[in-house]
C-alpha cells in the first residue's frame, strides 16, 4: 500500500464513521518495501490539491521520512520546487507498506495490511446502519 492510498483512508466502523477524529489512520508494525516508479511531475502537481498535508507528513514521519516540510507550502502562490516534487514522488509512490496495521485514533479499530493490500472490510456488527 502506498502513502498515496493511506492519505485517502478513514475509519468507517460503527460509531466512528462520521467523526472528524477517524482520520488519519495511525500506522503500526509496518514493513516497508521500496518499489521504483516512473517520475511524473504532472501527476504530482495535479494531486497536490487532494492531499491532506498534515496526514501525509505525519505518516511519513511515522515511517522515518523527514524530507517533507511540516508546514504545507502555499502552492497557489508558487509552483512546487523540483526537490519537493522528488520527495513527494518517493514518499507517495515508491514507499510501499507490505505488512502492518492501520489503527483508528478515535475508536481503536485495526485494519490489517497484508501483501501490500489494506483490508478495509468491516464485520457485519461493525457496519453503520
Automatic annotation (TrEMBL):
Lineage: Eukaryota, Fungi, Dikarya, Basidiomycota, Ustilaginomycotina
PANTHER family, per the entry: MULTIFUNCTIONAL METHYLTRANSFERASE SUBUNIT TRM112-LIKE PROTEIN, UPF0315 PROTEIN-RELATED
GO BP terms in the entry: rRNA (guanine-N7)-methylation; tRNA methylation
InterPro entries assigned to the protein according to its UniProt record, in alphabetical order: Trm112 (IPR039127), Trm112-like (IPR005651)
Organism: Malassezia brasiliensis
Protein name per Swiss-Prot or TrEMBL: Vacuolar protein sorting-associated protein 26
Pfam family, one: Trm112p
One GO MF term attached to the UniProt entry: protein heterodimerization activity
SUPFAM superfamilies in UniProt: Trm112p-like
Top-level taxon in the UniProt lineage: Eukaryota
Summary of subunit composition and partner proteins: Interacts with TRM9.
Family, per entry: Belongs to the TRM112 family.
Amino acid at each position: 500500500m502506498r502513502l498515496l492510498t493511506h492519505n485517502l483512508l478513514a475509519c468507517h466502523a460503527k460509531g466512528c464513521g462520521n467523526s472528524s477524529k477517524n482520520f488519519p489512520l495511525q500506522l503500526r508494525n509496518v514493513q516497508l518495501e521500496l518499489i521504483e516508479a516512473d517520475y511524473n511531475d504532472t501527476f504530482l502537481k495535479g494531486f497536490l490539491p487532494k492531499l491532506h498535508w498534515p496526514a501525509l507528513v505525519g505518516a511519513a514521519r511515522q515511517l522515518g521520512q523527514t524530507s517533507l516540510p511540516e508546514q504545507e507550502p502555499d502552492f497557489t502562490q508558487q509552483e512546487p520546487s523540483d526537490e519537493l516534487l522528488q520527495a513527494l514522488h518517493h514518499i507517495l509512490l515508491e514507499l510501499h507498506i507490505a505488512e502492518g496495521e492501520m489503527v483508528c485514533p478515535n475508536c481503536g479499530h485495526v485494519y490489517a495490511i497484508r501483501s501490500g493490500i489494506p483490508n478495509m472490510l468491516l464485520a457485519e456488527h461493525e457496519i453503520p446502519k
